[in-house]
Amino acid sequence: MTKAERATRNDSLVEEFLRYLAVERNASPRTLKAYREALAGFRAQNTKPWKQCTADDFRDYLFALMKREQARSYIRLQFSALRRFYRFLVDRKNLRRDPVRELQLPKIEKKLPLVLTRSQVEELLAAPLKIDKKRAAPKWMPLRDAAIMELFYSSGLRLSELAALDVVDVDLYTESVRVLGKGRKERVCPVGWPALEAISRYRAAADVHSGALFINKARRRISARSIWLILKRYLRQTSIPVAISPHKLRHSFATHMLDRGADLRSVQALLGHASLSTTQIYTHVTVERLKKAYAEAHPRA
Questions:
Q1: What are 3-7's contacts with CB under 8 Å, separation 24+?
Q2: Predicted structure pTM score
Q3: What is the DSSP string of 143-211?
Q4: Which residues in the chain show pLDDT less than 70?
Q5: What pLDDT, on the 0 to 100 scale, is given for residue 4?
Q6: Catalytic-residue membership of 256
Q7: Which member of 36, 250, 251, 256 is catalytic?
Q8: Catalytic: 135?
Q9: Which of 158, 203, 248, 256 is catalytic?
Q10: Is 114 in a helix, a strand, or coil?
């Protein structure tokens, strides 16, 4: 039992709220865990009954988080859970006033995502096929690694989405992959031929015909952490001067799509973003490229 579970175990309102999220809102286990931890975090500082808490109680909690120099994104996530919880209390438990609504939260810092150049992406995608013969591993593993990275960049998937893929989710005939994204929302993403061919080569070599698409040495589904470590290992074989995460391939996918003329709504759908504002951060990355194109092409630039 986690610390958050112990802190909220006997809290009937919290348990009922989490059941509501799971059953009526179809929330994922990851979302339920995050909400439980957020509520437990506040409860660790303030033990007053939920319905007796005031706006000042939540201001004290906000200041405590800021004093601990927590990131603004983390603070906003905690209060997002608290707001959702109090909306539930107002709607379902006859609470007259929502004290969390009276707070003004610090605005989140907008950091531009790090994006690889197209040549850097090509170098990274080629790294797995420079097979190290001394490596004590099945021969199909470099082919798997190549397929993983090709699919990341080809379809812009999240790390958790890629790790969760099954063989049946990839359709060679429609050149697409079926993805279960955040909030258990299903979407279909196109897949380029380089990625489809890499997947086919890997599956044939590893004899993977059903179940999990990407497997480990023990022939079980590969974990998200293992995929992260795979990327780090191949990154060391390249000339790329910065540390990157699998998410950077998603950033690169989105930015390169916009650079080559894709419209923002299409990129939003491909990434599985619920809000267009989340996708718009990628437009800032392309501004310098747009300026360069303007300077080179416009007669009065």
A1: 3/40, 4/33, 4/36, 4/37, 4/39, 4/40, 4/41, 5/36, 7/40, 7/43, 7/44
A2: 0.59
A3: HHHHHHHHHHHHH---HHHHHT-BGGGEETTTTEEEEE-GGG-EEEEE--HHHHHHHHHHHHHHT--SS
A4: 1-9, 108-113, 131-136, 274, 276-294, 298, 300-301
A5: 54
A6: no
A7: 250
A8: no
A9: 158
A10: coil
